[in-house]
Design a protein that fits this description.
Blueprint (H helix, E strand, L loop, with lengths): L4 H40 L6 E8 L6 E7 L6 E6 L9 E7 L2 E2 L12
Antiparallel strand pairs: 1-2, 2-3, 3-4, 4-5
Length: 115
């Protein structure tokens, strides 16, 4: 057993460092993105009881996180909230609203983007 002691210490250290890295590189930024998107939606006036689905995921193409939201009272529209800490928008969130795959004008949506 003493023969493999250094191996077990090395494997344990690698696992602990990997777990810590995962938390700092993925979990904390996702939590920050989720909070920013929720604050943005509150500022827009979107009631929480109107949210049908909300899916947040890492956006590997442009960076940051993307939340796809469907609402009860605006069911024909798909709200896409893009969060990146580099954005200079309110709450570092950029909103795109889609209807049938094409983006819509701000005047046509119930909850337009913040200025």
């Amino acid at each position: 057993m003493k023969k493999y002691r250094n191996l077990w210490i090395t494997i344990g250290t690698i696992l602990v460092l990997s777990f810590i890295g995962y938390i700092f590189l993925f979990m904390i930024p996702k939590h920050n993105a989720n909070q920013a998107i929720e604050s943005y939606m509150q500022e827009q006036g979107v009631p929480e009881n109107q949210i049908v689905s909300k899916k947040i995921q890492k956006n590997w193409t442009i960076g940051g996180y993307t939340a796809l939201v469907k609402l009860k009272d605006d069911s024909k529209m798909d709200y896409e909230y893009n969060y990146d800490k580099k954005f200079k928008f309110p709450y570092k969130v950029y909103l795109i609203v889609y209807k049938d795959g094409s983006s819509e004008e701000d005047s046509e949506v119930k909850y337009p983007p913040l200025k």
